[in-house]
């Protein structure tokens, strides 16, 4: 028995060591995943962009503002004159929170600071409120009678976590479904031998990629409708903006992700390699897209990578439309990026397949 | 006139030389057999023709269309036979393939199984379905890589009768095979060993070129004849006298004359020609 078991053991080790790509994944995957999990769950939210309206211009308001300056949780981006300007900045996504200090705040301690938070980003909103409460509590000790803080939530009528994270969940679901379907599509044909056979016909790389792209797009589009309908009807998730606009941005995101899946598939020798590589891409996207951790709080290096992650743009666009009810005028940059992403990834898949198959048949 | 010309073809896989300086031409309208043991480079040569492996040398194709039947019938397992045929028809741009699909199903005798998933077919049925897909666009040049592997003898015969009909209709076939009876049906054969061409010609030419013929004699004095003929030929004694010669018809009168001069009467003589299998095995051993 020992001989047989050791025979199987040696064979398995040899087979894995000779599959270079699988070996690379085995080594890289734990490094990437542990780093990302550690990074996502051990950091703290920093550099929350805030706007301030200081109608009081008193020592107390000065102290509050300097407290905001002194912490790295907040980054004061704007001082505005009115509360409505502050609200507009939040609506446009230029800041995540706003602090309104009313006239007579120092004189009359019954007057409360108003804190406006963009609840479309749950982590940011929770951190902003808890930090401001801590700051005012600290200042209260110096001022007899204490300070009042009123929380005002912007955009939402319901304070449920699902409303804030639904857009991101939908993005992640679309990404996972798309990658699973597309990343094994070409490698499966390679494994089964049909890829060489169809390339002996007049079929070109672009014919194959475009055909597959359209088929997967049709299938995932149906999935998108199911996901949005399920979120709405089963979990009462609201789409405050235009539903066609939301579906359009989701369509752009899924088409671009299909392109990425097809690139992975074209470069993978086996289905297993394709699925593993796509899982790495998917997880990196989730961690760096702002799903767990706002972009502003990321270290510069991670932030730079996140700009190359399509889910980042998709999450922003979905959140703007679903939670804030914003339209094309706000998410236009994301639409442009996602469109470019689709074109580049599909072209990349065609080039990758051409390179791997040598452009197909020579006869 | 050649339909396919291969010049100085070399295919390497890292350090391994799979095909070495192969020169090969396929004449329009012929059936050319590529013969060789496993690892001889037959399939690699075919894959090079389709641009599936990087190669050195030159491959010139003058056919307007080419059909390929690879080994192991890589069809879409979750499609039916008919769906596979229709798919390949679409890849070749056939506008209205209905009649052609019916014709192919009839040809490979899969009309009854048209709606069966390929994954549920037997090995031989898969081969037949693959052949039908390879021919769906009525190609001028058909390249078949061991088309009858796993096919039962009656159907093998049926396949070859069809290949002959295709040839009669002006089509060209390049076929690899392990079966000697199939190789005998080819007009020309190219034998390969370890990536190199070792013989080329019609089956008869190859047998003459590479195989020695045997003259068998039944005589009154076996031992005396053996002693005399051993001076001139490679002779063996096993119930009769067997003499290995290059050209038996021209040597037989000389042999009889030598024995008659020695006073030995020849009772019966026969000429035995080598089979293609004899030649094949001999060439592979060299």
Short description:
The complex is a heterodimer of chains A (363) and B (286). With 363 residues, chain A is an alpha/beta fold.
Explain the overall architecture.
The complex is a heterodimer of chains A (363) and B (286). Chain A contains 14 helices and five strands. Chain A has 363 residues and is α/β, with parallel strands linked by helices. In chain A, α3 links the parallel β1 (48-54) and β2 (74-79). In chain A, α10 (243-267) packs parallel to α14 (328-357). Chain A starts with a helix and ends in a 6-residue tail after the last helix. The mean pLDDT of chain A is 82. The mean pLDDT of chain B is 89. Chain B is built from ten helices and 13 strands. Chain B has a six-stranded mixed beta sheet, with helices on both faces. Chain B is an alpha/beta fold and 286 residues long. Chain B starts with a strand and ends with a helix. In chain B, α7 crosses α10 (276-285). At the A-B interface, α8 of A face loops of B.
**Residue share in helices of chain A?**
55-70%
> Number of DSSP helices of chain B?
10
Question: How many independent structural domains of chain A?
Answer: 2
Q: Based on the structure given, which CATH architecture of the largest domain in chain B is correct?
A: 3-Layer(aba) Sandwich
Classify the beta-strand content of chain B into a percent band: 25-35%
Summed over residues and divided by their number, the pLDDT of chain A gives a mean of 82
- CATH fourth-tier homologous superfamily of the largest domain in chain B: P-loop containing nucleotide triphosphate hydrolases
Give the CA-CA distance, first to last residue of chain B: 33 Å
Sheet bearing the most strands of chain B, described? 6 strands, mixed
The helix/strand order of chain A is HHEHEHEEHEHHHHHHHHH
Largest sheet of chain A: 5 strands, mixed
- Class from helix and strand fractions of chain A: alpha/beta
Domain tally of chain B: 2
The backbone outline of chain B, from C-alpha atoms, is: elongated
Output the radius of gyration of chain B: 24 Å
Mean pLDDT level of chain B: 89
Low-confidence stretches of chain A: none
CA-to-CA gap between the ends of chain A? 53 Å
Number of strands of chain B: 13
Examine the coordinates and then state which fold CATH places here, giving the name of the CATH topology of the largest domain in chain B. Answer: Rossmann fold
Estimate the global geometry of chain A from the Cα principal axes.
elongated
